[in-house]
Amino acid sequence: MRIPSPVDAGAGAVFRLLPIADKVFGGGWGDESAFSLLDPTGLTRAVEPIRVNWSDWRIPEESAVLEAGGRFSSPCDYLDDERRQGWAVRTSPVSGARAWCVLLPAWNDHGFITRRKLAAGLARHGIGTVMLEGAYYGERRPGAGQPVRTVADFSRLTRSVIEEGRGLLSGLLEAGLSAGVSGFSMGGSLAAVVGASLDGDFAIAPLAAGFSPAPSFVDGAIRHAVDWEALGGRDAVARLEAVLLRADTRLIEPLPATRTAVLVAALSDGYIPAYATAGIHDHWPGSELRHIRAGHATLILRKHAVLAGAIADSFVRAGLLEARSGRGGRGLPSASRGNSGHRRPPQRRKDNPLQRPHGS
Q1: I want to staple 268 with a disulfide (CB 3.0 to 4.6 A). Which of 154, 159, 245, 295 is the partner?
Q2: Strand order of the sheet with strand 262-268?
Q3: Cα-based angle 281, 46, 187 (whole degrees, multiple of 5)
């Protein structure tokens, strides 16, 4: 049993004191037909790329990377019209990107402040990013207060991040780019689903991820933020676990890209139980699991270089980038299952608009 870091334990205590209006699932279960959206087994191995209307590149204040915003129409017809107006931000090293990574949103990830720091770390490895805003967060948020009011809302949020992430990744691959997918916490868990469900040569780096949201909501600190009374009281725990276990990455037969994945787990994570990350690693022969001395919050707030290094290494393991000597970022001795499946870097098209540092 992990002992959570003091920061994670403190967050759990704060969650207990949240006003009812800010609790998760305060609106109850919602439309139960939406729960079927959690099941990943119906995802196809190919998907229509999402076309993003990008703005011109700019260099934000106090930033060393280029940045541009972009809008797109979400393919998710179960979202309301306002939620279907997609929003993403992309970043690039000023000198141009050698590869591109789709970074999916974490839980309660309004805006891109945390991911921008990770993107800056990736820029030092020559990697650009495409950061997706979740359908219930940031510019797409449905009003003030807790945006995820029901379990049905959570089901729609989860599936839409997966589908939009798959579409964005497919767009990069269609353009002939070296590409990959990653994310932290919920974003890492959903990156695992995206990576496991698509055919193609790309990198996968789930960070502080679980095979399902169920362990986090039942055994992690976030359980203290749930309005259990709105779900029916004490008996709701087992039911919520059963519903959320529908969203299990292990239900997907691993495709080749999972063999070179790099997973990262925090040794004192109070949000993602150890067994939840190990479950993905055990299901993906050839994958690598790195353990970092940190808690959940300190991992994302203080270990950007470590996380960026893990993502970069997933590109190397996938044969999409050459290793750079003298690069840090490794954690404690890692576990690896089977043949890593290294491949030689493929030749990529040079006439790619995302590689140009200026304009869209």
Answers
A1: 295
A2: 53-54, 65-73, 85-93, 127-132, 99-104, 179-184, 203-207, 262-268, 288-295, 335-336
A3: 45
Is residue 59 within 8 Å of residue 72, measured between CB atoms? no
Model confidence, pTM: 0.89
Nearest alpha-carbon partner for 276 in 241, 315, 312: 241
Closest CA to 299 of 187, 167, 212, 153: 187
Q: What's the CA gap between 244 and 359, in Å, rounded?
A: 42
- Kindly report, residue by residue over 264-290, the tens digit of the pLDDT: 999 999 999 999 999 999 999 999 999
- For 200, the domain range is 6-341
SS3 of 147, please?
A: coil
DSSP assignment of 303-356, as one string? -HHHHHHHHHHHHHHTTSSPPPTT-----SSPEE-S-----PPPP--S--GGG-
What does DSSP assign to residue 81?
A: T
- Contact (Cβ atoms closer than 8 angstroms) between residue 208 and residue 269: yes
CATH number, domain with residue 101: 3.40.50.1820
Q: Which residue has the tokens 């921008």?
A: 116
